Amino acid sequence: MLFQRAYAKINLTLDVLGRRDDGYHEVDMVMQTVDLSDVVWLEARDDGEITMESTSSSVPVDERNLCVQAAHAFRRRTGFAGGVHIQLEKHIPVAAGLAGGSSDAAAVLRGLNQLAGAGLTLDELADIGAEVGSDVPYCVYGGLAIARGRGERVTRYAHVPAMYAVLLHPRIFVSTADVYRGLQPSDFTSSPRSEEMVRCLAEGDHERAVSLVHNALERVTLSLYPELRALKERVTSIAQRPVHMSGSGPTMFVLTPVHTHAQRLYNALRGIMKDVYVCRFVGGYAHAHARS
């Protein structure tokens, strides 16, 4: 049996360039993994079956789960005929805008690559991941990256910013499809902020980086879910720093380069909600190895 960590991600920028002919939207976004993680355990099966269990009752364990879909995609691409049992230890909130499901699927791909001895590169695994979901290719790599297209075209950066994120997960379901449908032409841009964001992070200009955080979906999400708008206003008054949304929400985050400040903010926010996390930015999986 071996395991892979599946880190959550936040969007430091999320710009939408327009609507594509295939019905998706063209995006340009800076992604960053944080050390809030699920753990995916993989165990070989002799009967060739793909089975799954999860510590969370909110997660399906059949063909609807991206982990199971990733395992099938890996077998189609490689010809690997072996079975696998997937055990998912869930810590990332479900349907939170943190790519938990995509990260779990990416962990399955990395783990199966080792279990099967396939020797695929991360680039090859990311290519398989694109069949499973738009965020899966980025999650194969992790770390700091710019994702373009539907999110499947990933440019990686080795720099690990010395930053902390205080995450808040309101227990409110947000429909990603409804959010994207609510985008207006005025929400689109031809001048994404991704390159400048990455440059500021590489140079250690944290305050400038914080000022560049942007999410084109936030306007729509907050208009569709007024309770999230009210919560953001309340958190902003407590944090006295900008509060941003990850993905289509509902998770929000506050950035700071100072751990003690992050801890103080965590203590303050725990007074108004349960699901609050102090996370640090983490690097990618290029040099990470699963343990048996």
UniProtKB/TrEMBL annotation:
Keyword Iron-sulfur included in the entry's annotation: no
GHMP kinase N-terminal domain: residues covered: 65-143
UniProt domain GHMP kinase C-terminal: residue ranges: 198-270
Gene3D superfamilies with a match to the protein in the record: 3.30.230.10, GHMP kinase, C-terminal domain
The protein, known as: 4-diphosphocytidyl-2-C-methyl-D-erythritol kinase
MF-aspect GO terms: 4-(cytidine 5'-diphospho)-2-C-methyl-D-erythritol kinase activity; ATP binding
Enzyme category, top tier: transferase
Binding site for ATP: 93-103
EC numbers, comma separated: 2.7.1.148
Pathway info: Isoprenoid biosynthesis; isopentenyl diphosphate biosynthesis via DXP pathway; isopentenyl diphosphate from 1-deoxy-D-xylulose 5-phosphate: step 3/6
Family as reported in the entry's similarity comment: Belongs to the GHMP kinase family. IspE subfamily.
UniProt cross-references to InterPro entries, sorted A to Z: GHMP_kinase_C_dom, GHMP_kinase_C_sf, GHMP_kinase_N_dom, IspE, Ribosomal_Su5_D2-typ_SF, Ribsml_uS5_D2-typ_fold_subgr
Catalytic center residues: 9, 135
UniProt-listed GO biological process terms: isopentenyl diphosphate biosynthetic process, methylerythritol 4-phosphate pathway; terpenoid biosynthetic process
UniProt catalytic activity: 4-CDP-2-C-methyl-D-erythritol + ATP = 4-CDP-2-C-methyl-D-erythritol 2-phosphate + ADP + H(+)
Keywords: ATP-binding, Isoprene biosynthesis, Kinase, Nucleotide-binding, Transferase
Record function comment: Catalyzes the phosphorylation of the position 2 hydroxy group of 4-diphosphocytidyl-2C-methyl-D-erythritol.
Pfam families cross-referenced by the UniProt entry: GHMP_kinases_C (PF08544), GHMP_kinases_N (PF00288)
Coiled coil: none
Extent of the signal sequence: none
Name of the encoding gene: ispE
